[in-house]
Amino acid sequence: MAVIKDLLRLQTDIAVTAGEIALSRLTRKRLLRKIPRGEGQLVMLLPGYMAGDDSMNWLRDVLRDAGFDAHCWGLGQNRGFQGESGEAHVEEMTARIIEKVRKISGASGAKVALVGQSLGGLYSRETAMRYPDEIDRVITLGSPTIHPYISDDQNSFVTRIASRKAEAGFRFSITGKQGFLHWGARQPELPMVAIWSPIDAVVFSQSARIPDYIVQLSQAPAIRENLRLVCSHSGMAFNEAVVTAVADRLAEPVDQWQAFDAVKYFPRWSIELVEQAFGNRLFHEFIYADWRQEVVRPRPEIRDIEDDQPLLLKRLRRDHNDFYQLYAMIEESLADGSFDEESDYLLLADVARFMTDYLDRCHHPLEEFVFQEVLKFHPESAHSLEALEREHSKIAKHGALLLQQVENACDPGIKGRPDRLLVRWRKFCETLRSHVELEETVLFPQAMTHIPARAWTIVQRDWNLREDSAESPLSDVGVGEEFRHLFEYLSYVANRDRRPEGFGDNRVLGRYLDSVVFLSEKLDGALERRQSSSN
Ligand SMILES: [Fe+2]
Ligand SMILES: [Fe+2]
Questions:
Q1: What is the C-alpha separation between 484 and 488, in angstroms, rounded?
Q2: Which Pfam families does UniProt cross-reference here (predicted)?
Q3: Other Cβ atoms within 10 Å of 347 Cβ, number
Q4: Domain ranges for the chain
Q5: Domain 311-472 indexed as CATH 1.20.120
Q6: How far apart are the C-alpha atoms of 79 and 189, rounded to whole Å?
Q7: Ligand 2 centroid to 227 CA: how many Å?
């Protein structure tokens, strides 16, 4: 059924493509008047699956007329995945592509920008990953999967044909372990722009976008940008808005990168007209804001937890918020930007234990449990679970090393080197933060989509039956002996205003005495609640 639906979607896409190609004949002159002029920048255009240079000729000619030194790839029809494995095929293709790139740059050795349509964009990313010194930037047009977690989000009719056409023994797949995700927020150090369309009927929008958390963590010169433009899949290289955006991004200087600003391409009168008719809120919030993707600087984000979410997800999200709070707390306590003899290593050890031991023992098993439930309703998500488990074991491994180092630092006999500790601490937090962002923006919404609302109560009940279903040690009920120091600190912070006079002289003692009172009050309250609920 899904295949038939996807076949119909494909037909619509082809119809829109035909319209875009027809319009392109009329818009060329106007386009050339408004797009930025190039200064001879080298550009190579890579066609999508089953297409050849013909599909990129029009874009090449427009770019040439605008002053860019644009070339098609010259490797004939893009026949898609061939051979025994996806990895071997990509190795071979990128080697062929870089040969062509070198021909284009010639004796000057100048870097070449790659603009890839669909599968051509995947090849562009992979080539840039392997030869970052020779590539200037990458622009992808509706290219599949920057993230293997969500790469099954594609037209099933097209992937079925691609699998049939691939050589025997190779199943067309770029999901899960066969997925290609090398593009982190900083690696490789060159800009990438993903142009995606909400009505793309081949590579669905989520799979063609750079995950938000990567965009958020990115910085110049390795900027990551998503541009949402309404167009078909196959006609992107003929669409006026897409070509405008491609030329704009090709002309943008890498070292002074500014986010794409669509407003300059709207005639002033059209903006005024919309503002007159609907007020400027409509234009700025719905049209403009949607087009213009801000380049956001890294910032841990405490999220609001909506009331109508399933309890289990609320709990996971509360843990995420705890992680962000603790992370911010330690960063704040680094008064002069580093750990030193004065640092509160006991506190750091508790925070590190929360982030490693608690997450490993309770939080990650719960996430994996939720995803096993997702599989019951949506077996195609198997690779999401696999990838989740892989990331969790990676975090556990890094966490164990961090904890070891923090515990050494707590021991006056074997003080670890504080600067090394800081590097490891920040690296670990960074890994965890991108993991959390991925869960918040991709995986939890996936769980919400696939587990039906009525099933969550049963999922919750099954989880409660498990031994590892303990509460967070930072909640008043769950606070454990091993997190006492941290809990005391948090209690102190929460209770600062009620602090009795005279405690202020000794920082550690004052905090300790003050928080013991608060802690015991909380524990008493929790005990009472437990007793009354068992009566
Ligand atoms: Fe996780
Ligand atoms: Fe998580």
A1: 6
A2: Abhydrolase_1, Hemerythrin
A3: 21
A4: 2-253, 266-299, 311-472, 476-535
A5: yes
A6: 30
A7: 28
Distance CA 224, CA 218 (A): 6
Q: Percent of the chain, pLDDT > 70? A: 67
Q: Which residues are CB-neighbours of 222 under 8 A, at least 6 positions away?
A: 185, 186, 187, 188, 189, 190, 191
Q: 300 CA distance to ligand 1 centroid (A)?
A: 16
Averaged over successive runs of 10 residues, the pLDDT of the chain (535 residues) comes to 78 85 84 89 93 90 94 88 75 93 91 95 92 95 70 70 61 52 73 89 78 70 87 89 92 89 74 62 43 36 71 86 74 61 66 80 88 87 81 88 80 64 81 83 84 88 73 53 58 48 34 40 50 59
How do residues 523-534 score in pLDDT, each as one tens digit?
Answer: 445 445 555 655
Distance from the alpha carbon of residue 355 to the mean position of ligand 2, in angstroms: 10
Token readout for 20 is: 């875009």
Rounded distance from Cα 363 to ligand 1 centre (Å) = 7
DSSP collapsed to 3 states, 368-432: HHHHHHHHHHCHHHHHHHHHHHHHHHHHHHHHHHHHHHHHHHHCHHHCCCHHHHHHHHHHHHHHH
Distance 272 CA to ligand 1 centre (A): 47
- Whole-angstrom distance, CA of residue 395 vs CA of residue 403: 12
Task: Point out the ligand nearest to the CA of residue 389.
Answer: 1
Helices (H), 78-189: 86-105, 119-130, 156-165
CA–centroid distance, 333 to ligand 2, in Å, is 24
How remote is the CA of residue 330 from the centroid of ligand 1, in Å? 21
* Dist. CA 298 → ligand 2 center (Å): 18
Q: What is the pLDDT of residues 436-495, one digit of tens each?
A: 888 887 788 888 888 988 888 888 888 877 766 666 655 544 445 555 556 655 655 555
Taking the CA of 395 as reference, the closest ligand is: 1
- Angle at the Cα of 485 from the Cα atoms of 483 and 487, rounded to 5 degrees: 65
Q: How far is the CA of 393 from the centre of ligand 1 (A)?
A: 10
Distance between CA atoms of residues 25 and 240, nearest Å: 10
Say which CATH topology domain 2-253 has. Rossmann fold (3.40.50)
Question: Mapping DSSP to helix (H, G, I), strand (E, B) and coil, where does residue 341 land?
Answer: coil
Q: Is the Cβ–Cβ distance between 25 and 61 less than 8 Å?
A: no
Task: Name the closest ligand to CA 371.
Answer: 1
Would you state the pLDDT for residue 192?
Answer: 94
CB 182 within 8 A of CB 132: no
| 392 alpha carbon – ligand 1 mean position (Å) | 6
- Cα 28 to Cα 19, 33, 37, 351, 407: the distances in Å are 15, 9, 14, 59, 66
> Do 344 and 493 form a contact (C-beta atoms < 8 A)?
no
First to last CA, the chain: 53
Residue 438 alpha carbon to ligand 1 centre in Å: 9
